[in-house]
């Protein structure tokens, strides 16, 4: 196989030829650029939490307090838990469990966590996220948004924080 060798000025000229931007070529023109840390509005009430947008995580995770799994009508798994926002406000939830996830621990082994659906909004981007309930007390961020939510919606600027232009309109409280 013979390598094509171009003088450096020819290679630079080819690199500068106008053409569609990368974002336009691969369908990313409609995606929102956000920092790796943003305010995340969770649930129907839009509880504000400081969250990490983590492209290294497959799924999303939220710090659920007082998590209790129980059987509803003797057959379906349900879970009751509380979420606490940045301002200390707490919201209690009672929802059906979509499934259970086995999460690998850094120390080895796995832990079984309930997975629910939660509406979330970050930087004006809304969607229903599949979220596992975790004890994140030792973590800096109460919610972690993984690739399942971010894909096809958000590009993450890993050098930036709190750069969201669009806000999530949340319902007013009484």
What would you give as the CATH superfamily? Acid Proteases
User: Helix amount, in percent?
Assistant: under 10%
Strand-and-helix sequence, N→C?
A: HHEEEEEEEEEEHE
Beta content: over 45%
Q: Total domains, how many?
A: 1
The beta-strand count equals 11
Distance between the termini: 73 Å
The CATH architecture category equals Beta Barrel
How many whole angstroms does the radius of gyration measure? 21 Å
> Could you say which overall geometry the principal axes of the C-alpha atoms support?
globular
Return the CATH class. Answer: Mainly Beta
Spatially, the strands of the biggest sheet line up as: 1-2-10-3-9-8
The helix/strand class is mainly beta
What is the name of the CATH topology? Cathepsin D, subunit A, domain 1
Taking pLDDT < 50 over at least 5 consecutive residues as the criterion, the unreliable ranges are: 8-25
**Mean pLDDT value:** 84
Query: What's the tally of helices?
Result: 3
Q: Summarize the main sheet.
A: 6 strands, mixed, barrel
InterPro entries: Asp_endopeptidase, Peptidase_aspartic_dom_sf
Domain Retropepsin-like aspartic endopeptidase: 33-166
Keywords: Signal
Organism: Hyphomonas adhaerens MHS-3
């Amino acid at each position: 196989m013979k390598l094509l060798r171009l003088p450096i000025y020819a290679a630079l000229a080819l690199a500068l030829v106008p053409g569609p931007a990368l974002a336009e070529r691969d369908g990313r023109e409609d995606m929102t650029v956000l920092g790796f840390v943003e305010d995340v509005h969770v649930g129907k009430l839009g509880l504000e939490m400081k969250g990490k947008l983590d492209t290294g995580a497959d799924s999303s995770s939220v710090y659920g307090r007082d998590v209790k799994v129980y059987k509803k009508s003797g057959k379906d798994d349900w879970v009751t838990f509380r979420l606490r926002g940045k301002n200390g406000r707490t919201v209690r939830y009672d929802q059906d469990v979509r499934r259970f996830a086995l999460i690998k621990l850094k120390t080895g082994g796995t832990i079984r966590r309930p997975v629910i659906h939660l509406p979330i909004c970050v930087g004006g981007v809304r969607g229903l996220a599949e979220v596992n309930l975790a004890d994140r007390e030792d973590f800096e961020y109460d919610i972690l948004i993984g690739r399942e939510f971010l894909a096809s919606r958000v590009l993450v600027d890993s050098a930036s924080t709190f750069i969201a232009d669009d806000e999530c309109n949340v319902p007013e409280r009484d």
